Structures are given as structure tokens and as C-alpha cells.
Amino acid sequence: MASKTDFTAEEWQTIGLAPIVTAMYISMADPSGPIGLMKEMFAAVSGIIEGARDAASIQIVRDLAADLEARSLKPDLPKFSSKEEARTFAMNTVNQAVALVESRSPEEGQAFKQFLYDTAQKAAEAGKEGGFLGFGGTAVSDIERQALAELAAALGLTV
């Protein structure tokens, strides 16, 4: 079982950034304004902490949650010139993080991938898309569903 101590500080930053950028990937697919974005990012962080409380969670997820709660994990996102650039960065980061986890603990790779997907799904469900002044709209837009499908395919998950 892999844990934070099995990774360099730089590798751990990449792993810690992965669940945040999965949420960003979904948010950038169908931006819902600043309030919606805040809700989606909050849902992602909450999803990490909730994921750690799951009895089936892997040590890496528990370590990520502990670092977030202690505020010792400070994901540093670069500035992006377009949402496509942000989404490309997100997918590259996710792929790097998965490769790192699988290199240290191949048997936990699938659980880590599922955790990333679940975090993205929580983010997608956090803000309503469409509607007016908070009325109407849908929890997950068709564009967000497509982004979730893209993420699942990239992770090799069937959902």
C-alpha cells in the first residue's frame, strides 16, 4: 500500500493536484460563473475529504485529505490563456498522477482512478447549469456529462 512517504515532494504535489484538476476539467467544459465554479471546487475538496472517510479508501486518499485539512497541500495552478489549455493541463496532470500511483502501487491504481472520477462527478453535481437566478436548470449539463465521459475514458473506467 502506497502512502505520501513513497513520493517525492514534487510527485506528491502532482498527486494532490489531480483531484482538483478533475473538478477543473468539468468546470471548464461548461463554466457556470464564479459562484458555480466556487461550488464545484468546494465540492471537489469536500469529495477528497469524504473519500478519505470511506472505509474502502486507499492510504493515498487518506494522506491527501489529511494534507488538505492541515492546509499543508497547496495546489499551485498556472495561469491559462484558454479553457482548452486548462483542460489539457488537467488531463496531463491526471495522467501523471495515475502513472505515479501505479508505479508505486499497481494494485491501487484502479481505486485511485475511481476516486478521481468520483471527485469530478461531485464537482459536476455541485452547481446548477442553466436556469435563471437559481431557478430551473439541471444538476449536470449535457456538456458536463460529456466531460465526465471523456474523463472516464481517459481513466479507463466504465461508468
Name its key features.
159 residues; mainly alpha
3D structure, described in words:
With 159 residues, the protein is mostly helical. It contains six helices and no strands. It has one domain (4-155). Helix 1 (9-29) packs across helix 2.
What's the quick description here?
This protein is mainly alpha-helical.
Outline the secondary-structure elements.
Elements: H1 9-29, H2 33-53, H3 59-69, H4 83-104, H5 109-126, H6 142-155
The total count of helices amounts to: 6
The largest β sheet comes out as: none
SSE pattern: HHHHHH
Radius of gyration: 15 Å
Strand content: under 5%
Helix content: 55-70%
Strands, total number: 0
Shape: globular
Could you report the average pLDDT, rounded to the nearest whole number?
84
Secondary-structure class: mainly alpha
* End-to-end distance: 25 Å
Q: Give the count of structural domains.
A: 1
